[in-house]
Amino acid sequence: MDLDTLSAKLPAFVAAKYGRALPVFDVVKMPGHAGFAYGFRVQNDTMVDSWFIRLPPPNVSWKGTADVLRQVAVLNALDSTSVPHCSVKWSGDDLEWFGCPYFVVPWLDGDVLRLGEGEWGRTLSDSVLLDLGRQVMTALAGVHKVGADKVPYLGEPLPFDDDVTRWDRFIEKAAEPQRLAEAPYVRRKLLENLPADAPVGIFHGDFQTANLFCSKAGRLLAVIDWELCGLGATLNDLGWIVTFSDRQAWPAAAPGQPARPSFLDPDTLIGLYRQAWEGPLPDLNWFRALAAYKFAIISGFNLMLHRRGKRIDETWEQTSLCMEPLMRRASELLG
Description:
The protein is of the alpha+beta class and 335 residues long. It has helices at 3-18, 68-78, 126-144, 162-165, 168-173, 183-192, 235-243, 266-277, 284-307, 315-319, 323-333; strands spanning 24-29, 36-44, 47-55, 90-92, 102-106, 111-112, 200-203, 212-214, 220-223, 230-233. The strands form 3 sheets. Strands 1-2-3-5-4 form a 5-stranded antiparallel beta sheet. Strands 6-8-9 form a 3-stranded antiparallel beta sheet, covered by helices on one side. It is globular, with a radius of gyration of 21 Å.
């Protein structure tokens, strides 16, 4: 939906939800890659209310990641927890407003955690970063402690083997397939060593710094972008964020260039999560290997989309250089 169309539809929606006509302004497309998200503001007497609305992509079936009400189910379940998140103000599958399902949450002031050269996250002291890490991993454990019975809308848990084999079709389409030469070996080792008793519950699906919304003083305000959420092995999330901070998985892309910026080191992140989870973390290296395997494949697939002009994003030219190191790290973690 373009901004003009959304701007034309929002006044009637706002009037229905507030019970009276109010001015709507500052309708903008929000940054990021996850779904179709917009911000808007409402002049509510002397107050200005700021809102964030998420809609599914156009011309797709409202299933899986395009089913925005999956996110609503999880966010509603988190309302009874201490996990920082955006509580849903309005949601629905009624088509009268936007012609598609939707949900609306508060538009927060802050930013996602940015750790690149010159970014605000690099100005935080080591002690503040460690405290932020504790907040982040405590929040992750809090998500994983929510019972699956709280989110029946998500359906059945994803089987462990399906989370290996569902990436096969992306391998076939990846650009630079020679960089995925180790994929068949890693795939086989993952399937031969499926976890037996890893905890199952709600997982975020993309738990990493780009989805941690913070104040610039180092306080976690909300875990955001839940479009990949589901039921399944919760250690997928721990393996994911740890992989994004694993120097052995992300060496310098070229001589003389710095390695990819990372949050806290893997051992610290795992230790902070372990304290908050207060239970065993079986087969953690398997989930770390799976995360590295997945992201190597995702990088190759997105590089293909970029080069074919289907989804232009120059950053994948750089990110894809780590396809081989990620596969190699997955192999190492599997022994």
